[in-house]
Amino acid sequence: MNLDWNVIWTYRGALLEGAGMTVLLTVLTMLMALPGGILLALMRLSNYRVLRGISLAFVELFRNLPLILIIYWAFYVMPMALHVQMSAFTTALVALVLNISAYNAETFRAGINSIRKGQMEAALAIGMSRRQAMFKVVIPQAARRILPVFASTWVSLFKDTSLVSVIAVSELAYTSMQIRAQTFRVLEMLTAMAVIYWMMGYPQAKLVDWIHRKYGVKE
Amino acid sequence: MEFDFSPIVDNWRFLANGLGITLALSAVAAVTSILFGLVITLFRLYGPRWLRPFLVFYIDTMRSIPVLVVLVWIYFAFPLLAGVTFPPFWAALVGLTLHIAAYAAEVIRAGIESVRPGQTRAGLALGMSRAQILRKIILPQATIRMLPAFGSVLTIAIKDTAIATVIAVPEIMHQTEIVAGQSYRPIEVFTVAMIAYFLILFPVTRGVDRLYHRLAHLGRS
Question: Would you say residue A73 lies in a domain?
Fold first, then answer.
């Protein structure tokens, strides 16, 4: 078997662009899923039954579906059902945001619920308003507990962006597989793809471990 | 807009086969992942010291690359290297096991390490061997604590089998794509697939939650 690793250097520009697209998708998705998750969590904790119901249904639906199916569904069904035309990139973003918002909502809800009720009551007792108690007492403590889980979600998201290659968004996985198809350098390209993902993902995974060690809740 | 569900009715056997393969693949992958994860963890905690960095490196590597990449590499690239070809189902099983086992290993390690070291010392003081302590004291307690997390491994396995569609494993995701493409009825076909996946996954995640609440107090020591 003759291997030609030069193909990776030849296509370095395309691969770099693909990696850039992967990072862009991860960052954009998180930027939108963060407020999305907060909104869903607040809806879930609100006093209105309808809002709670909507949030619960949304979160349970998108947490209990494989992401790849959501991507296909967003690609084939959403444009027809809603009569909108979207680029593959936008479609991918919508699917990822729906999925990650659901996870974030659960993270935020669990974080806020993990702060004992007594603290909210104590804050109210010393004359703080509900808003003050929430923002000055509950949320600062919840944030520390949320951070490790949030970091794990980030790494999952980074890896899950590879799934949007099925609708031809030219991120790293799609780009690598396109080059493989053009050059027939299967082993070289697929190995390069794995190594580039590793180079980007490994430091993130280690950082997540560090955050867990530093901020993780010890029982 | 008119809906036409006849493609699903006409192809129900084809789709049902896919569903069967999804269930079989995810169940087998969950079991092999947990077993492989257990082997990794036992070697990591009790094996020779020089092996540890390699196992940690393996776990962290699998945590940092997407499962799609692992599946595609095993199916398309590995045969070129080794000179053997796998059918898609077996490639998917190997790829999913390699990937999910890393998560299972972390779960199992957390479970074993959650049993206080004092219990090991107490066992040693009573004259038990290391193997006896592991088998009679640590694993029974750790297993109860790990059960809910094993349930999560199963949900991960079910969701990840859907990704095996990229290497043409004839599971439900792949069959859905085929039926949707042939019938030009993507709305109906994908929506039915969505309902099918939800009906499988929702009871499992709910079951995991209930198991967790049921068992949480048993695991305390």
Answer: yes
Q: Provide ipTM, 2 decimals.
A: 0.90
Q: Give the count of domains, chain A.
A: 1
Q: What is the model's pTM? A: 0.90
> In this predicted model, what pLDDT tens digit does every residue of B153-190 receive, in sequence order?
999 999 999 999 999 999 999 999 999 989 888 888 99
Report the candidate in B68, B161, B176 with the shortest Cα–Cα distance to residue A177.
B68
Q: Is B65 on the interface with A (CB under 8 A)?
A: yes
Which residue of B lies nearest to A70 if distances are taken between CA atoms?
A: B194
* Domain ranges across chain B: 6-215
**B68, B187, B194 ranked by CB distance to A80: nearest:** B187
Query: Which residue spans within A74-131 are E strands per DSSP?
Result: none
Which distant-in-sequence residues (6+ apart) come within 8 Å of B148 by Cβ?
B208, B209, B211, B212, B215
- Whether chain A has a CB inside 8 Å of the CB on B69: the answer is yes
Question: CA B184, CA B189: separation in Å to the nearest integer?
Answer: 9
Write out the two tokens for A187.
């082993």
| pLDDT, tens digit (0-9, with 9 covering 90-100), for B76-134 | 999 998 888 889 999 999 999 999 999 999 999 999 988 888 999 999 999 999 889 99
B67 close contact with A: CB closer than 8 A: yes
| Domain B6-215 in CATH 1.10.3720.10 | yes
